[in-house]
Design brief:
By secondary structure, the chain is mainly alpha-helical. The protein has one domain. The chain has 9 helices and no strands.
């Protein structure tokens, strides 16, 4: 469980496209509508864990590159949405209630899909968390369960803290909220371009090889 807590805290604090997406939601919908998105890894990580431990180690390298390209395209879509929201101006104050429950569900599903299409969780589970989980499970299944509980408790708790802290800053100054919207759009665009370049390079190397 201690290993899970440490790894989960590290994953929550590490800057990435998921955190950039959360910033865009904070600027657009407020913290209460964004908070459920912190639970998105519980939706996406199940298939990722299965694919990583069972399939990913047996597929060719170009498949991961193709996944990076798909994720990059989806990040471009999210960046465009964040930029349009920034241009319109935040329609929801950071402390307001979400007006439509379906929007909250859509945010969670978008966050889960983005996480599923990002190569980072696959690499993380294949190289770091996966071996720890397998080793713990072989010693005793309860150890494996404890690792998962610690990991997701720290990950989700860290993401919720991330949301609350940045939402608090945006409530103090409305210009901070606008800045968060712009920052999230730029961040999502940067991660999208990075994934598209790396994915394209990986497929090109596989074709040449």
């Amino acid at each position: 469980m201690l290993k899970g807590l440490v790894l989960g805290s590290t994953a929550a604090a590490q800057p990435g496209p998921f955190q950039a997406f959360l910033l865009s939601l904070i600027a657009r919908d407020g913290w209460k509508a964004t908070l459920p998105a912190a639970f998105a890894p519980l939706i996406s990580d199940g298939p990722i864990l299965i694919l990583t431990l069972v399939i990913l180690t047996r597929i060719p390298g170009w498949a991961l590159s193709a996944l990076q390209i798909a994720g990059g395209l989806f990040l471009l879509y999210l960046a465009w949405g964040a930029w349009r929201s920034f241009r319109r101006g935040s329609s929801t104050a950071a402390g307001d209630e979400p007006t439509v429950v379906e929007d909250v569900r859509a945010n969670v599903l978008k966050a889960a899909l983005m996480n599923f299409l990002s190569p980072s969780p696959y690499i993380f589970w294949a190289t770091v968390a996966g071996p720890i989980l397998v080793e713990a499970w072989r010693v005793r299944p309860a150890h494996g369960v404890a690792f998962l509980l610690g990991f997701y408790a720290a990950l989700i708790g860290g993401l919720m803290l991330f949301i609350i802290v940045f939402a608090g800053a945006s409530r103090i100054n409305s210009r901070v909220n606008r800045a968060l919207g712009a920052l999230s759009a730029v961040g999502l665009l940067a991660f999208a371009v990075y994934q598209l370049i790396v994915g394209s390079s990986g497929i090109r190397a596989a074709l040449i090889g």
